[in-house]
Structure prediction request, 449 residues.
Amino acid sequence: MLNTILAEAAAETEHNPIIPIWQEIVLGLIAFVVLVVVLTKFVFPQMEKTFAARVDAIEGGIKRAEAAQAEANELLERYRAQLAEARTEAARIRDEARADAEGIRQDVLNKAREESDRIIAAGQEQLAAQRESIVRELRSEVGTLAVDLASKIVGESLADEARSRGTVERFIADLDSAGTTGGRR
Amino acid sequence: MTGQSIVLAADVPFPPSVEDFYLPSILPWAEHDNYWFTKITALVWLTTALIIIYFLVSYRKPQLVPTKKQWLAESIYGFVRNNIAVDMIGPRGVQFAPYLTTLFCFILLNNFWGIVPFVQISPNSHIAFPAFLAVISYVMFIAVGIRHHGVVKYFKTALIPPAPWFILPLLIPIEFFSNFLVRPFSLAVRLFANMFAGHMLLLVFTLGGFAMLNANAWFAPFSVVSWVMTIALTFLEFLVICLQAYVFTVLTASYVQGALADGH
Prediction:
């Protein structure tokens, strides 16, 4: 159909539709070139930039998140290691402290034992000394008392001191030997 | 055209002729054979202006998260970039995407005037426009091929298919004919003829309705059928308009791809 139309048209009219009009080519070319220049200079590069920025934003976000995740994991590992270290350290310190405490306790115990021994020994010594002095005192006093008592019983003063002293001395020596055996008992 | 025919309903010219495509010029008014400022050229300028304004306005402040307007402009570019340029040419297609998108928009909108009420003629129904677009595509794919391969190697890969030597005398002329002679013509004529025929069809059915009505008042129902056909054909035209813009762009991309291809 097109062919017949074209043939007819070519035959009977002054315009041939497949012969381009040069003015239209010129104008169309100018218009198209302007369009191409404007769009490829100002619009589509912008779009490419936006696309790239968008891709970057998404991929960069993912990458950043991954990096942060990795860093967090690493930190976690490090903290865990540090925690384990701290735990063993604490255990070690505790053991040491326990050992120290045991040592100190032993020391204190020993010292206390020594002290008590010492105190006991001193007490015993003192006791013996006191007993000695008491015995000595008693010894003299017993002599006097006995003389007093004897003189009262006899009713007369034993004027003959020399004699009486000799008697007393003898008595006390007897007593003394008896007293020492009694004290030891 | 339709407006003219409605006004002249009393004596419509039927059948429509090629002369219906050549309207008198606007400036100077009503002069024939003066083509600097006609409805056709005005439409081309309008197309250019509309596309530029549209993209500049909708892409004035690009944002990472696009607004609706920005998204629409981006999807036009993205469509040509991803579905034509990258699909046909491969990763290198990105650098051709801006030109291909411009080409696509220019052809699409110029075609679209063919079915816009009260405009209803596409500049692409004048062969001048498809012709220079085809020439640009032709020059472009040859230039791309030469830059990629060098002159000798490009014509070698383009002309000599991997075939036994005794077939080559037959194949080389065929390759030359199909690659370097037919391509620009087929590109230009395909687009031009589609738009020309589309306009002619709409004219036939619109004017035919009036012609029948004038011939006999009893033909009124047929006139109505004819006008309904016009509407139906307008929808068909819409399909053809989009398809032809797409085909022109895809073929250009395909030629560029062929020029860049290393094997045959």
Notes: Chain B has one domain: 2-260.
